[in-house]
Amino acid sequence: MWLPPMMPTSHLDIVDAIESGDGPKAAEAVRDHMAGAASVLVDGAA
Fold first, then answer.
1. Are 26 and 13 in contact (CB under 8 A)?
2. CB within 10 Å: which end of the chain, N or C, has fewer?
3. What is the pLDDT of residues 13-46, one digit of tens each?
4. Contact 27, 13 (CB under 8 A)
5. DSSP 36
6. CA distance readout (Å), 2 to 13, 15, 41
7. CA-CA distances (angstroms) from residue 5 to 20, 21, 31, 44?
């Protein structure tokens, strides 16, 4: 199945969290992002 390209802006929270040097914050940002991505793939949510 073809998926549209990912929006670079959707990753800014992850990049900012990583750049902050706060490991737990970065991990949370990645988990939140991946949960949203899974929802889009599984449920078709936007």
1. no
2. N
3. 899 999 999 999 999 999 998 898 888 888 875 5
4. no
5. H
6. 25, 26, 11
7. 27, 28, 20, 15
